[in-house]
Amino acid sequence: IxxxxxxxxxxxxxxxxxxxxxxPDGRVVSASxxxxxxxxxxxxxxxxxxxxxxxxxxxxxxxxxxxxxAGLNCCPVIVADIEVVxxxxxxxxxxxxxxxxxxxxxxxxxxxxxTNLLPGEYTIKVIEPYRHHDDDILEFTVNFVTTPxxxxxxxxxxxxxxx
Length: 163
What we know:
By secondary structure, this protein is an all-beta fold. It has strands at residues 25-31, 50-57, 63-73, 80-85, 88-93, 105-115, 121-127, 138-143, 149-155.
């Protein structure tokens, strides 16, 4: 006599890797006011001649990023295009000067969130409107499975960073 299955048992899974992800989606969450280092503004991370990304991945699809010392117009409308293409997270920060900004530059800390991001290795690249062509691009590769939190910095030697 052989036993025949008489039904099925299912377990609901609501997290990676069982549920299907939609496309990654990024947005600006918040931004600091203009940082004035000479007024004793306490930097979140590093000195004013460093341009940095701090990151934290929760293992379930949420990536939090902070662009520390982002150089933008002094009166910005903080806007960025964020896309994930072939393992590269591209954050293009958009200059607001054409939208009535001030005639000066300033450093800001900008918080971003990207949802629906599968675990794995990614290159993070920030396209900055005021990066001097002699300065390195803020770009690095990280594996969120092995290193879910960390930071990466590049030195800056031109206005508005090194003043």
